[in-house]
Design a protein that fits this description.
Distance between the termini: 11 Å
Mean pLDDT: 79
Strand order of the largest sheet: 3-2-4-5-1-12
Helix content: 25-40%
Low-confidence stretches: 62-66, 111-117, 176-184
Radius of gyration: 19 Å
Strand content: 15-25%
Oligomer: single chain
Largest sheet: 6 strands, parallel
Length: about 240
């Protein structure tokens, strides 16, 4: 896979996305979080708590240091890696598009002959968390609207010689979330399978299980026109 190929990750917990970027990127990387800072920190704390709750109870006391989550263990390596990441919060779709318009025409990064990007080596990322979710509850929640945003994202990543990395949060129902508090299995919903109307401004009809009027396409099909889906099991890809 070419290094510059934009990629979309499978649905992740917030902490898993941050870990992925920290492990695989090379500075300067820009991470765009499509939410407010407060909401992101809440999601991050919840995802770390969820990961910690899955550790066997017998290991909590004897291996407290080893069981400490990566993001809660401020090693020199973690601090060094995080210092090369620019973190941006965009709470609305308008904020995201405004930032991309400015970012795409900001001072561009150049790659010199002495600083090549080798195949398989870490490279600068333009990593975006929950971009598709940001379109929900707007008239741009459609294949047309998300494609418009993606076009701006691709332009920005190309201008700055960065690899685009998209990720959406795992979705769990309230009932499943409560069940997980007592150790039960959780059924995750894949956001990439969500149905979208083709055009912006489409209407929903029906009762609780409302459907879009007209033809629809899955979110994953829209993203696949721009990005390559990859697996990142066990932190690799």
């Amino acid at each position: 896979m070419p290094d510059a190929m934009p990629m979309a990750l499978p649905p992740l917990l917030c902490s898993e996305f941050v870990e992925f970027v920290l492990k695989h990127h090379r500075g300067p990387t820009t991470m765009i979080v499509c939410s407010s800072r407060e909401r992101f920190l809440e999601e991050l704390r919840a995802s770390i708590d969820r990961a910690h709750s899955q550790i066997p109870a017998s290991s909590h006391g004897e291996q407290a240091t080893e069981d400490l989550h990566l993001l809660l263990n401020p090693t020199l390596h973690l601090i060094s890696r995080s210092q090369t990441i620019r973190l941006v919060f965009v709470p609305t779709l308008s904020h995201l598009r405004a930032f991309l318009a400015i970012y795409a025409h900001a001072t561009r990064r150049s790659v010199s002959a002495s600083d090549p990007i080798r195949l398989g080596s870490p490279i600068p990322f333009l990593a975006i968390w929950a971009m598709a979710r940001l379109h929900q509850l707007t008239t741009e929640h459609s294949a047309q609207g998300i494609s418009r945003t993606l076009a701006a994202v691709i332009e920005a990543s190309n201008q700055h010689v960065q690899k685009l990395v998209l990720a959406e949060p795992k979705i769990v129902s309230t009932a499943d979330d409560e069940a997980n508090q007592i150790g039960s299995d959780v059924t995750w919903h894949d956001p990439w399978t969500e149905a979208l109307p083709l055009l912006s401004g489409a209407l929903r009809f029906g009762g609780e299980e409302r459907a879009w009027s007209g033809k629809t396409v899955t979110l994953g099909a829209v993203i696949s026109r721009w990005c390559q889906f990859v697996e990142c099991d066990n932190g690799g890809y």
